[in-house]
Design brief:
The protein is an alpha+beta fold and 104 residues long. 14% of the residues lie in helices and 31% in strands.
Amino acid sequence: MAIPVYPEGLPCPLRENYGFTPTNNIRRTPMDSGRARQRIEFPNAPATVNLSWIMSAPQAMLFEAWAAQVVGAGWFTMTLLSPLGFNEHEVRFTEVPVGGELTG
């Protein structure tokens, strides 16, 4: 089964509060001597990013339907700005998207 793609025509995420937060993959074990041993627990640590959008009512309806019926809790691809530039990333929702707040 192909990985779903973020729908064309929906806006890009806002820049406000945009930033990748890497998962800490370093484990530290204290020893009786007062020193500690450190090791990399897993080589490829995932990162999280909080995204927010401003959408019109039709865009929001499309997004909500797509998130619920196509993606669910699975993976999808979307273009995100990372330290390497704009690239396609495989991402998934870790929480149910919330919204409907009035702006302006």
